[in-house]
């Protein structure tokens, strides 16, 4: 067992988090993550309405009696999202941990804190992490350039971003991006983090509500199999490399291209139907990180969590002490 500021602050057995994942972070996965002793986040906006989120929280509680949280991703959208109503459902349903991401969590913090909800804000730069801490969040999740999703525009990998953030933050730090193993956990702890957050590793689990073909493709893929898209539109994202994401990158590179030129290819509905639903891994744009190069099996969440913790313990207890040179004998 590891005991860190994360495990103490949030009352979770292991310093492992499954971050919010649109279309993947449902009760099936999050309940299994919680039962494995890690912290999972239902993704609020995967549910079409605040009422549906309430029902999903009930479904997750049927699967686990362990703590779990809800991710609230705040992004500009064409159709306005009733963020306040999602927030109020989170509070009314008695959720005690929230992961915010995307935009500024400030409008929601007073209500969350008044209700006793702890807020972890996911940031992709040291300056945004510091800003979140100043706003009063309870922990910061810091996503390095390796990550799936939106790594921001600075392109700073975790090896630098994690210690740079840990150096200036007082709140617990959760490291994410490209982590899938016990070695990654130990490395993150060594860099000053108190826990790690993983997305792609938890996609390749038996409980993730996506087609088997996607899980098998993650195992088959290497660290090279990602594609950066949307950089030209100021919204850099890392997704799995396939014919669709490569085509998006090509079209986006044309002079004068706009998001409208690739919207049909990048559509989340298309990925949910073709990729996650039908298992056609070339049928849409789907999200995965460089961590694909570290994932060798599809396993259940309990096994994933157990193996990561066991590997991390063995590294700390057996491998690392061996590097310490014996103390020279002191002369009287
Ligand atoms: C399929 C998928 C969907 C994701 N959707 C979201 C999301 O809706 N909101 C969010 O804050 N992060 C999202 N993420 C990012 C993850 O929460 C996490 O920060 C990231 O996956 C960490 O990097 P890793 O994949 O290398 O472990 C998503 C990641 C994946 C793989």
UniProtKB/TrEMBL annotation:
Name listed for the protein in its UniProt record: Nitronate monooxygenase
SUPFAM superfamilies: Inosine monophosphate dehydrogenase (IMPDH)
Species this chain originates from: Gordonia asplenii
Keywords: Flavoprotein, FMN, Monooxygenase, Oxidoreductase
Key word Lipoprotein present: no
CDD domains the UniProt entry points to: NPD_like
Gene Ontology MF annotations: nitronate monooxygenase activity
Domain of life: Bacteria
InterPro entries, per the entry: Aldolase_TIM, NMO
């Amino acid at each position: 067992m590891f005991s860190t500021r994360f495990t103490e602050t949030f009352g979770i057995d292991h310093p492992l988090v499954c971050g919010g994942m649109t279309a993947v972070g449902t009760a099936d996965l999050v309940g299994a993550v919680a039962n494995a002793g890690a912290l999972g986040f239902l993704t609020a906006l995967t549910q079409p309405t605040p009422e549906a989120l309430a029902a999903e929280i009930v479904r997750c509680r049927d699967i686990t009696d362990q703590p779990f949280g809800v991710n609230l991703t705040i992004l500009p959208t064409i159709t306005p999202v009733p963020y306040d109503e999602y927030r109020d459902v989170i509070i009314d349903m008695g959720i005690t941990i929230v992961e915010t991401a995307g935009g500024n969590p400030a409008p929601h913090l007073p209500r969350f804190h008044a209700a006793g909800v702890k807020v972890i804000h996911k940031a992709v730069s040291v300056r945004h992490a510091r800003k979140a801490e100043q706003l009063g969040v309870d922990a910061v999740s810091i996503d390095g350039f390796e990550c799936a999703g939106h790594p921001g525009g600075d392109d700073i990998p975790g090896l630098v971003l994690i210690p740079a953030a840990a150096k200036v933050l007082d709140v617990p730090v959760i490291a994410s991006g490209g982590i899938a193993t016990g070695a990654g956990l130990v490395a993150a702890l060594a860099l000053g983090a108190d826990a790690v957050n993983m997305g792609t590793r938890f996609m390749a689990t038996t409980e993730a509500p996506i087609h088997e073909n996607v899980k098998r493709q993650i195992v088959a893929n290497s660290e090279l199999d990602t594609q950066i898209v949307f950089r030209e539109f100021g919204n850099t994202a890392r997704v799995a490399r396939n014919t669709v994401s490569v085509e998006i990158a090509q079209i986006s590179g044309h002079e004068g291209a706009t998001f409208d030129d690739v919207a049909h290819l990048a559509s989340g509905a298309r990925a949910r139907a073709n990729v996650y639903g039908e298992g056609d891994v070339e049928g849409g744009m789907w999200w995965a990180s460089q961590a694909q190069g570290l994932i060798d099996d599809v396993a259940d969440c309990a096994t994933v969590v157990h193996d990561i913790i066991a590997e991390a313990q063995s590294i700390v207890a057996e491998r690392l002490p061996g590097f310490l040179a014996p103390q020279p004998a002191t002369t009287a």
